Amino acid sequence: MKPKKPIALVTGASSGIGKATAERLTVAGYKVYGTSRRGAQANQQSFVMLSLDVTHDESVEAAVDEVIRLEGRIDLLVNNAGFGVAPAGAEESSIEQAQAIFDTNFMGIVRMTRAVVPHMRQQRNGRIINIGSVLGFLPMPYMALYSATKHAVAGYSEAIDHELRTMGIRVSVVEPAYINTPFDANLMKPDVPLDVYRDVRVRVERRVKEVLVSADGPEVVAEIVLKAAMADHPKLHYTPGLASRMRLLRRFAPAGVLDAGVRKDLRLEA
């Protein structure tokens, strides 16, 4: 008998990093279930698509239960679902908007992990890979709330890796820098914009768009996810491409140099 393919569940797989990851895992021999809020599309991919909204407990439970019903196990969970936020001052987002950002980008990962871990514990094996960002360890002015969600993802990933490794489950966080994906075409705008931030908001957004033009594509992240998934001894943090140099800068550069570099890159007043 042929060995069964490992089963992967990838959230936010309709485009960008999620789609590239699902496709790469499929080529590598995984049977992949991707998810999106819309579910299966007319232009069906090389993997199965399920409907899933990571902000709703019932939707999360239903999708995980469906994969378990069909396959009996989940070997790999890739938590990718999330949305970007357009550059803005932190005070330009209401409390309700801040909660919405966290509900998807962080609590969505918590919901998915809570739903999948009991099955991985039972099978005494599993990998969880969370898609974070360099903004989980580097400051980004005018992206405070998004950065906060990615800091939360990094801290959560580190903590639960310690909790779960004795049960055969390992957790990693992949922290890319700028990635050129459709994700950046539908950014959440601030819901309480203030005139005092208008000019700098426009300048920072223009700068981000400039950098994205020459940024790596989502395939770079997908390759790192596969590497983390198949590693015998997975690392906790993976920083593909430019992100690896940025982590070194964060670790070794003097605070004043890093501070000045961030402001210079974003064309902010010193």
Question: Would you summarize the structure shown here?
Answer:
The protein is α/β, with parallel strands linked by helices and about 270 residues long. It contains 9 helices and 7 strands.
List keywords for this structure.
globular; 7 strands; 7-stranded parallel beta sheet; alpha/beta; single chain; Rossmann fold
Walkthrough of the structure:
Belongs to the short-chain dehydrogenases/reductases (SDR) family. This is Oxidoreductase. GO terms for molecular function: oxidoreductase activity. InterPro entries: NAD(P)-bd_dom_sf (IPR036291), SDR_fam (IPR002347), SDR_oxidoreductase (IPR051911). With 270 residues, this protein is of the alpha/beta class. It has one domain: Rossmann fold (3-Layer(aba) Sandwich). It has 9 helices and 7 strands; from the N terminus they run E-H-E-E-H-E-H-H-E-H-E-H-H-E-H-H. The protein has a 7-stranded parallel sheet, sandwiched between helices. Helix 5 links the parallel strand 5 and strand 6. Helix 1 packs across helix 7, helix 2 packs parallel to helix 4 and helix 3 packs parallel to helix 5. The longest helix is centred in the middle third of the chain and has 21 residues.
Distinct helical segment count: 9
Q: What is the CATH-assigned architecture?
A: 3-Layer(aba) Sandwich
Structurally, the number of domains stands at: 1
Mean pLDDT, to the nearest integer, reads 93
Structural class: alpha/beta
Largest sheet: 7 strands, parallel
Q: Spell out the helices and strands N to C.
A: EHEEHEHHEHEHHEHH
Give unreliable regions as ranges: none
Topology-level CATH name: Rossmann fold
CATH classification, class level = Alpha Beta
Strand order of the largest sheet: 3-2-1-4-5-6-7
Q: Beta fraction of the residues?
A: 5-15%
Task: Specify the overall morphology.
Answer: globular
* Radius of gyration, taken over Cα atoms and rounded to an integer in Å: 19 Å
How many angstroms separate the termini? 66 Å
Give the helix proportion (percent range): 40-55%
Task: Find the count of extended strands (DSSP E, 2+ residues).
Answer: 7
CATH H-level superfamily title: NAD(P)-binding Rossmann-like Domain
